[in-house]
Amino acid sequence: MHDKLMELPIIKGAKHGKVRDIYDLGDKLLLVTSDRISAFDVVFPNLIPDKGKILSGISAHFFKNTQDIVPNHFITDDVAEYPAELQPFAQYLSGRSMLVKKTRVIPFECIVRGYISGSAWSEYKKTGTVGGMMISEALKESQKFASPLFTPSTKEEDGHDLNISYRDMLNMMDGWIAQQLKDKSLELYKYAHDLLKPQGIILADTKFEFGSIGSEIFLIDECLTPDSSRFWELNSYQMGSSPLSFDKQFVRDYLNASGWDKTPPAPELPAEIVEKTRAKYLEIYKIITGKELT
To answer: Quick count: other Cβ atoms within 10 Å of Cβ 132?
Structure first.
C-alpha cells in the first residue's frame, strides 16, 4: 500500500486484502496489486519482487481478451488515463494497478477443476467426492475429469472460505444468477485451457469472482493468474503425481514439507523460495502475454 494515496480527497476509503488494495474513487475503484504472497489464508512477511505487476498484467490481458464471453469490470490500466490526483503516484501505480467499474460483489468463489489436485484430491481420497459430488470413476492424482467440474465456495471476510456444492449455491441465491456464474466460469476455463495447452501449459483449475451492476453480471477481481489458478508444465504431466507448476503450489509444497502448522504468524520464506517463486511467475507471465515484464 502507498500510504499517501489515503490522503487524496478522491479516496473515500480503502480495503486491504491479502494481496490487493482496493481504493474507492466514488463511481469506480482503483485496484492496486501488491507484491505480498499468501498461502493457506495467511500473508507472509516476504514480498515476491514484481509479483504485483505480473498478476495485474495477466489479469488485464485476460480481461481484454474474454469480453466476448462475459463482461468484466476492467476500464484501463494506463495510468495516464487515471484521474489527475493520482498522477503524482504514477511510478508506483504503473504496471500494478487498474481502474475498474464498481460492482456489487457476489460473495462466492467460482472454482472450475479440469483435473483432480489440491484440496479436491484430498477430499476425494477421504470421501470419494469432489465439491460434495460423488465421483463414479476411480481417479488417480492429477487425472483429468471427463468434463470440468464447477465447485463453488463461499467468500468469507474472515477465516477460511467454505466449499459448498452447486446445489447449496442454488439454495443460497437466485437460480438464474447461479446458472450464469456456473456457465460463464466453465466457458472461461475452457477458453483458457484450450489456449494454453498448445503453449505447453495445462490449466488444471482456476477460480473466478463476479459482481453485478443492476441486472448485468461482470467478471471482477483477478483473472487466470498464478495466484488464482493451477498451471502445470505439459511435458512433466503424469497421472499419479503432482506435475511441475507455475503458480503458488511451489510455495505450498515448501510449507507442507517445513512442518509449519498453517496458523499465524507466517514464517519467513527462504531467499531461494522467494527467487524461485518469482522466476515461475515471470515464466508464466511471458507464456501468457508473449511479453517480457518491463
So the answer is: 14
On whether residue 86 sits in a domain, the answer given is yes
Q: How far apart are CA 63 and CA 43, in angstroms?
A: 26
Q: What is the pLDDT of residues 251-280, one digit of tens each?
A: 999 999 999 999 999 999 999 999 999 999
Q: What is the pTM of this model?
A: 0.94
Same domain, 70 and 172: no
DSSP single-letter state for residue 267: P
Shared domain check, 63 and 158: no
> Distance between the two ends of the chain, CA-based, in angstroms?
21
Is 157's pLDDT higher than 80?
A: no
Decide which of 78, 101, 124 is a domain's last residue. Answer: 101
| C-alpha closest to that of 90 among 101, 102, 78 | 78
**Do 136 and 237 fall into the same domain?**
yes
- Considering its fold, how many domains does the chain have in total? 2
